[in-house]
TrEMBL record:
InterPro entries: Elp3/MiaA/NifB-like_rSAM, Radical_SAM_N2, rSAM, rSAM_horseshoe, rSAM_sf. SMART domains: Elp3 (SM00729). This is Radical SAM protein. Pfam families: Radical_SAM (PF04055), Radical_SAM_N2 (PF19864). GO terms for molecular function: catalytic activity; iron-sulfur cluster binding. Residues 135-360 form the Radical SAM core domain. It comes from candidate division TA06 bacterium.
Length: 446
């Protein structure tokens, strides 16, 4: 069936670079690109996901209905509404769906609602949030992915996952084990999904339980301060060869500033532990261009990674991300670092680590980060630019013709009193919380 023949077409957007992909998908499918051009015979285009909850504004011209926050419950209500309204595509169907969907908590209908409340699920155990898709045609081909929790108790100030999925919740180990059993699937590997997997109080039990059944266990990222020797060796016994640590910054001062207090000693001890239990690859994540960062912070990354390489003597990959100010986080008002600054600091780190035989450095494209940051802080004018881009495929011209102020979006420090395009979303925590966290960061940096 052609996409345009479906009643509803849904798109999930995880991060900002999915915005142009979503526009391309809608346009290329033959569905009228702009929601205002759609008629009774066209599908309803719905969208949700982390990026949408942070800031849906750049897509309001293209999407009929947004799901803000976690959609398990709101989507069920939407599906019931669809059944209730019935007679899809009869005269007036679209209008009625939009009007009634706008009353569902956690749903935002552009042109109907002028505010929206983020919805979240209070009891994760009530849901089976596992992926039953085991296919060689996907990245995690033979891995059964199961969610162990949502949100993160750490509250790093740059991190969208911590704010968009507040409060931190876990699925009980018993429920995860039971759902894996009842799904009745054959899988050699299991992946625990969540922003704070190693903060799960039952993580050791879970690893041991699945190890007993001969499964290889995968965890996306581990926190050094809750990695016990037992957990680490269990992970290695279950076949985990790569451990990811994300110090994000090289010095303790910078880590305190971003809200990720981890001591140097603890990080080095974790690397030591990885060496002792036989981990083969260590992945280290750092971020460049953080607020209040100076050139000396690049040196601090070199120093920390060098220290780790003396302790962990197998393969180390250093991954350098670039800070992007995310809507609805304490650093939403902070600017993106200029490409010159980022490139200079990346250069310092690459040079500083070039003599390390077991270290390789990978850095993100600065150009891509700029586009991401524009969508992250953009309003409806960025949506106009997306429309222009779809027609002409030239970003520079698209932004210019839409009147987008790139300088302000990318490089200005915004006033904490300014009205921001995403302020109409009620995140279920006050904006004053973000301001307080920003002030703490400023104090830590001074
Ligand atoms: S520990 Fe990781 S997931 Fe948690 S808030 Fe910090 S960056 Fe985000």
């Amino acid at each position: 069936r052609e996409i345009g023949k479906f009643d509803v077409v849904g798109i999930s957007l995880s991060y900002e670079l999915d915005y142009p992909r979503a526009v391309t998908m809608i346009g290329d499918s033959g569905i009228p690109l702009l929601r205002e051009e759609r008629g009774e015979s066209d599908p309803l285009v719905i969208a949700g996901g982390c990026a949408i909850t942070l800031n849906p504004q750049p897509l309001t011209a293209f999407v009929d209905i947004f799901f803000i926050g976690e959609a398990e419950e709101s989507f069920r209500e939407f599906a019931n509404l669809l059944a209730d309204v019935g007679q899809v595509r009869k005269a007036g169907w679209r209008k009625e769906m939009l009007r009634r969907a706008s009353r569902i908590e956690g749903v935002y209908v552009p042109g109907v609602n002028d505010s929206a409340k983020r919805r979240w699920v209070s009891r994760l155990d009530a849901l089976n949030t596992s992926s039953p898709l085991l296919t060689p045609n996907s990245h995690f081909s033979d891995m059964y992915l199961t969610e162990v929790g949502r949100g993160c108790p750490r509250g790093c100030r740059f991190c969208a996952a911590s704010y968009v999925y507040r409060p931190f919740r876990i699925r009980s180990a018993a429920s995860i084990i039971e759902h894996a059993r009842s799904d009745d699937l054959e899988f050699p590997r299991i992946g625990f999904v969540g922003a704070a997997v190693s903060d799960h109080p039952g993580i050791e039990r879970l690893c041991m339980e699945f190890a007993k059944r001969g499964k290889e266990v995968g965890i996306s990222s581990l926190r050094p301060d809750n990695l016990t020797p037992r957990l680490r060796s269990t992970l290695v016994e279950t076949g985990m060869r790569t451990v990811t640590l994300a110090p994000e910054a090289g010095s303790e001062k910078m880590r305190e500033m971003i809200g990720k207090a981890m001591t140097q000693d603890r990080i080095l001890q974790s690397a030591q532990m990885c060496q002792e239990v036989g981990v083969r690859n260590l992945r280290l994540y750092f971020m460049i261009g953080l607020p209040f960062e100076t050139d000396s912070d690049a040196d601090a990354i070199v120093e920390l990674a060098t220290g780790i390489s003396k302790t962990f003597r197998r393969r180390i990959s250093v991954r350098l991300g670039v800070f992007v100010p995310k809507a609805n986080t304490p650093f939403q008002w902070q600017p993106l670092a200029s490409s010159e600054v980022v490139e200079r600091r990346v250069g310092v780190i690459k040079k500083g680590l070039s003599s390390g035989k077991n270290i390789r450095v990978f850095a993100r494209s600065v150009r891509e980060v700029e586009v991401q940051a524009i969508f992250s802080r953009g309003g409806v004018d960025v949506g106009t630019a997306l429309y222009n881009w779809y027609s002409g495929r030239n970003w520079k011209r698209a932004f210019r013709n839409a009147g987008v102020n790139r300088q302000r979006l990318l490089y200005d420090r915004l006033s904490t009193e300014a009205h921001l395009p995403w302020d109409f979303i009620d995140m279920s925590f006050p904006k004053s919380l973000l301001k307080r966290e920003l002030m703490k960061a400023e104090r830590a940096a001074s």
